[in-house]
């Protein structure tokens, strides 16, 4: 038998393999996909929940930037986390203002839409005001006591910047 041709024995193995794949596929919900993904052994979809665990009291206050992986993004700065009343929302919503100072100038960014996805805490980052264009995500990688470490992930590509903060006041007002 030359390479590239199937003999009777190979055809038998292939037909058994096809039958086995068909049986497994049909018993797992066939090719219908999403509605039976959990039955096929795939993990259930992770739910996105508004807010961050523990509520505002865990995060509210003013934080000083202690480190940035990219000095052109920020050499120093401040993060203020607070609540605000949002029309058509049953309770005040978490918000934040991130002031970053670099050699090129000052950037004021607004954090909104705080969400929890599985164990990931994130917020949308807009330029200047709540209704400004979304420029990235603020993704918390560590929060322990007064220490908060996050990644700024730009929407339009570019490098992720790791930023570290230390809370110096639980009061968001100066």
Full CATH superfamily name of the largest domain: Calycin beta-barrel core domain
**Tally the helices: what do you get?**
2
C-alpha Rg, in Å?
25 Å
Tell me the series of helices and strands, N- to C-terminal.
HEHEEEEEEEE
Adjacency order of strands in the biggest sheet? 2-3-4-5-6-7-8-9
**What is the architecture of the largest domain at the second tier of CATH?**
Beta Barrel
List keywords for this structure.
14% helix, 174 residues, Lipocalin, 2 domains, mainly beta, 8-stranded antiparallel β-barrel, globular, disordered N terminus, 9 strands
Describe this structure in words.
The protein has helices at residues 8-27, 56-59; strands at 48-50, 61-68, 76-84, 93-102, 105-117, 120-127, 134-144, 147-154, 161-169. It has 174 residues and is mainly β. Strands 2-3-4-5-6-7-8-9 form an eight-stranded antiparallel β-barrel. Strand 2 (61-68) and strand 3 (76-84) form a beta hairpin.
């Amino acid at each position: 038998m030359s390479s590239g041709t199937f003999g009777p024995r190979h055809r038998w193995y292939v037909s058994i393999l096809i039958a086995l794949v068909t049986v497994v596929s049909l018993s797992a919900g066939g090719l219908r996909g999403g509605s039976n993904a959990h039955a096929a052994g795939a993990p259930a979809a992770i739910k996105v929940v508004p807010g961050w665990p523990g509520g505002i009291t865990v995060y509210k206050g003013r934080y000083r930037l202690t480190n940035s992986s990219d000095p052109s993004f920020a050499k120093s700065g401040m993060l203020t986390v607070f609540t605000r009343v949002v029309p058509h929302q049953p309770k005040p919503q978490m918000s934040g203002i991130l002031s970053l100072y670099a050699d090129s100038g000052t950037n004021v960014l607004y954090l909104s839409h705080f969400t929890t996805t599985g164990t990931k805490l994130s917020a949308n980052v807009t330029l200047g005001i709540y209704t400004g264009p979304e420029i990235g995500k603020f993704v918390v990688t560590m929060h322990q006591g007064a220490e908060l470490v996050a990644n700024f992930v730009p929407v339009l590509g570019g490098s992720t910047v790791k930023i570290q903060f230390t809370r110096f006041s639980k009061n968001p007002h100066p």
